[in-house]
Amino acid sequence: xxxxxxxxxxxxxxxxxxxxxxxxxxxxxxxxxxxxxxxxxxxxxxxxxxxxxxxxxxxxxxxxxxxxxxxxxxxxxxxxxxxxxxxxxxxxxxxxxxxxxxxxxxxxxxxxxxxxxxxxxxxxxxxxxxxxxxxxxxxxxxxxxxxxxxxxxxxxxxxxxxxxxxxxxxxxxxxxxxxxxxxxxxxxxxxxxxxxxxxxxxxxxxxxxxxxxxxxxxxxxxxxxxxxxxxxxxxxxxxxxxxxxxxxxxxxxxxxxxxxxxxxxxxxxxxxxxxxxxxxxxxxxxxxxxxxxxxxxxxxxxxxxxxxxxxxxxxxxxxxxxxxxxxxxxxxxxxxxxxxxxxxxxxxxxxxxxxxxxxxxxxxxxxxxxxxxxxxxxxxxxxxxxxxxx
Length: 390
Prior knowledge:
Strand 1 (51-56) and strand 2 form a beta hairpin. Helix 1 (2-11) crosses helix 10, helix 4 crosses helix 10 (376-386) and helix 6 (209-226) runs antiparallel to helix 7. The two termini are 18 Å apart. The protein has helices spanning 2-11, 13-25, 34-47, 106-122, 146-151, 209-226, 265-285, 305-318, 337-342, 376-386; strands at residues 51-56, 60-65, 73-79, 130-136, 158-171, 175-177, 180-183, 185-194, 198-199, 234-242, 249-250, 253-262, 289-295, 301-303, 324-326, 345-353. The chain is an alpha/beta fold. The protein contains ten helices and 16 strands. 33% of the residues lie in helices and 26% in strands. The protein folds into two domains: 2-182 and 300-386, Aminopeptidase (3-Layer(aba) Sandwich); 185-295, Alpha-Beta Plaits (2-Layer Sandwich). It is elongated, with a radius of gyration of 23 Å. It has an eight-stranded mixed β-sheet. A four-stranded antiparallel β-sheet has the order 10-12-8-13, with helices on one face.
């Protein structure tokens, strides 16, 4: 059965690729996906059989394919938004919009779900369940498009929900996921340490916030090493430090902007206070003022065990034995976590890495998609639908 599913998906590879390239060339940022949504709606209408609702969560789309009377509803989700990044040249269909680029694979996710729509419509008579396709905006912009999609009915009546993401770190031909925590909560902090600026030649006459900021950066790493259990993965990264205007000036203030990644809700709740208390204590000990804007990000993405079992069965059926990889958690964040807080389901990664080639990670301006992966997502979604218990 299953090799035929992959063959069926490969028949639509040219169309999926064409759609992906069209979306890639004209990327749209969070909640601005009007052209992408119009393309999705147009393609769904051309396929036929789908009940389409547009304007969900501003630019999102829900599409339903009814199943047998009284059957459950199975949902599949794709994200549509691009990143505020200028893409490195190289592709013939490179982004035509400076400051926006599909360098995380969302163009592929949308195209693959449209390929799934075509496959499912072709096999409608065989489906034991109804299907809902969720084309979601704004995955990249916290608090994400998922909560708004949920509030506007995306999961109403749904039994389980699944999503996939292309993965340049995972070997090509493999599908990776795991039971339990798969992806991290992704928080953000903006700290300001305020002293009193002046001339760099007279440090005794100023209140220099620069060494205070440096001490805070180091203390945050010690905090992770000494206040969190070593078996509990945590990342605290200061990604931006800014302050001052010239080489011989002591600035009035320094700002630190960073991210905190956690996998458990307990640690996610505890760290904001620990981080701010530690940083404030250091700043005030040096006579500086301290302020912090701490923003909670997406919750940890936690897969349900039974759903991961269904993914494994689908992978082994479609791609063969040994193609399912039980992976370690990743500290990336993903707003699909909101769906899994509401309904059973799972999120999984589609491998693209060939041999020992250099990894061009998601969000890099040099990210490149291996388009050979495009039939895999639709084939797996079809296998999940056909194999879902009545």
